[in-house]
Design a protein that fits this description.
The chain has 193 residues and is of the alpha/beta class. Helices cover 38% and strands 20% of the residues. Strands 1, 2, 3, 4, 5, 6, 7 and 8 form an 8-stranded mixed beta sheet that branches. The two termini are 21 Å apart.
C-alpha cells in the first residue's frame, strides 16, 4: 500500500469560511518516506481575502502569497498525487474536510479517500487499560514518544514529513505488539464520503 502524507496550512479550521494557504505532501511506500517525490505549494487566497492573524502561526503573509498559485491550480496536482494512495495526516479530519470542500467546489463531488490518521493511531497506542491517554498527542509530542527528532511546526511540507516518519515509528511499534506485519485495517482506516 502506498500512502501520501499531507499537511495543509490554512487561515483557520473551518473549510466553509477559511482558506488553504500552503499544501505539502510526501509519498510513503515500502516502509520509506520518499523525499525525492515530496512537494509543496503555496496557495494564493481568493481575491479580497487576507491571511489575517493566522500568519502568526504559520508565517505565511499576504505579500509572501501574492505570487502563489490559486487553489484551483494546485488541487489537480494534489489529487493526482493522491490517486491510488491512502491519505495520511496527523488529525486527518482537517485535511479531509479542506480537500473535500475544494473538490466539491471545483468538481461537484468529494473524492473517495481512504485515510490513516496518526493522531487517532497514537491515541490507541497511548491509551492505558482504562482507555485513558497517557501524554500529549500533538505531533511533536507524539514524535518525541517514538524517539524522533523535533522539527519546527506549522510548515506544510515539514509537517507532512513529520507525520510520515511518525507513522513508520507507529507501524514498527504495532508490528512488535502484534507479532506480525501491520495491515491497513490495523491502522483503523476510515473511508470519507
Amino acid at each position: 500500500m502506498e500512502l501520501l502524507a499531507l499537511d495543509l496550512e490554512t487561515t483557520g479550521l473551518d473549510p466553509r469560511t477559511d482558506h488553504v494557504l500552503s499544501v505539502g505532501w510526501v509519498p510513503v511506500a515500502g516502509g520509506q518516506v520518499l523525499l525525492a517525490d515530496a512537494c509543496e505549494h503555496r496557495v494564493r487566497p481568493p481575491d479580497g481575502v487576507d491571511v489575517g492573524s493566522s500568519a502568526t502561526i504559520h508565517g505565511l503573509t499576504d505579500d509572501a502569497l501574492a505570487g502563489a498559485a490559486s487553489l484551483a491550480e494546485v488541487l489537480p496536482r494534489l489529487l493526482g498525487a493522491l490517486h491510488g494512495r491512502v491519505l495520511l495526516a496527523h488529525h486527518a479530519p482537517i485535511e479531509v474536510e479542506f480537500v473535500g470542500a475544494a473538490t466539491v467546489s471545483a468538481y461537484g463531488a468529494r473524492p473517495p479517500l481512504t485515510v490513516v490518521d496518526t493522531l487517532a493511531l497514537e491515541h490507541r497506542l497511548r491509551a492505558d487499560v482504562n482507555g485513558e491517554v497517557q501524554g500529549s498527542l500533538r505531533l511533536d509530542a507524539a514524535r518525541r514518544t517514538h524517539g524522533l527528532p523535533r522539527y519546527a511546526s506549522h510548515h506544510a511540507l515539514t509537517d507532512a514529513v513529520a507525520a510520515a516518519e511518525l507513522l513508520l515509528a507507529q507501524v514498527a511499534e504495532l508490528e512488535q505488539r502484534l507479532g506480525r506485519e501491520v495491515l491497513l485495517r490495523d491502522l483503523a482506516p476510515k473511508r470519507s464520503e
